Amino acid sequence: TTSGVNSSIAFAADASSGLSSQIAYSDIVNKGLEFFLKSEFVKKTKFSYTVTLNGAYNVNVARTVPTAGFTASDAYATAYRDGYSTSNLWAFKWAGLDNKGNPQIYNKEGKITSVLDSATLASAMTYAGVLRAPWNGGLIQELTWGSFFGRAALTFSWGAVMKTFMPTPSTELVNSSLIRYRWKQAGDELHTDIPAMSTDGASSFRGFVTNNSTNSVMSANMIRLQEVMIGWRFPQRFIKRLKMNNMMVTLQGQNLAMWTQNKYHLDPTVVSSNGVVGMPIPRQYSCSVMVGL
Asked: Which of 110, 126, 220, 268 has the fewest CB neighbours in a 10 Å radius?
């Protein structure tokens, strides 16, 4: 448990104070475990097969933190809340668009409303998950067969969620192709979640709800084929002729494949906290020749 004054906690100060932020006293409780398993399934003179599984569970829980003051910002949706993970995410329960293209949510009484005022929004947010995966690890398989050898490594990240960016069509410039799917006429609310064009931009209550509702939250679970490598060690009789100690050649590929649980097949590692997708991690291929003199 870590206790003390924490200036990194995102808490907005009371607007009447004239201050932009406040320093909070808090307790942060860390809970976690690590595991490592390695098994040699086959071990013979010219053939071996080994599997290694390692991983960790880690979560930081905020305790005795002050209640965050409501602000229509992403910081409020991820502010520390007593008893929850420090990477918690909160969102409005989405209720679709009304017949005029306005966003609707469920209020604290469970009723659908399109009235988006501070009192309604401050009490309507629900817990949506954590942005930092508590479970992380990898599975490594290694094989040797005479002078040949190979290695394949999978990494996994489990238990987190992420957001996908939902634009708010307005007079402001928004770089999102989703705007073309915005509500345009009665009936469009049946097949789109992008609101109608409005003078209220991303910094309005309308924009805050549009980009911070449950319809934009999805699983960030993923498994990545991180590495595949094959290689060959040159026989000793050949190496001795060249007056070398050892020599081998390897072919390696990295980031070759990925399995995700989100419908857009997005790589969670390149999605920002507000749902904007960054540049993808490229596949990499290499060939190496290693010589020992």
From this structure: 110
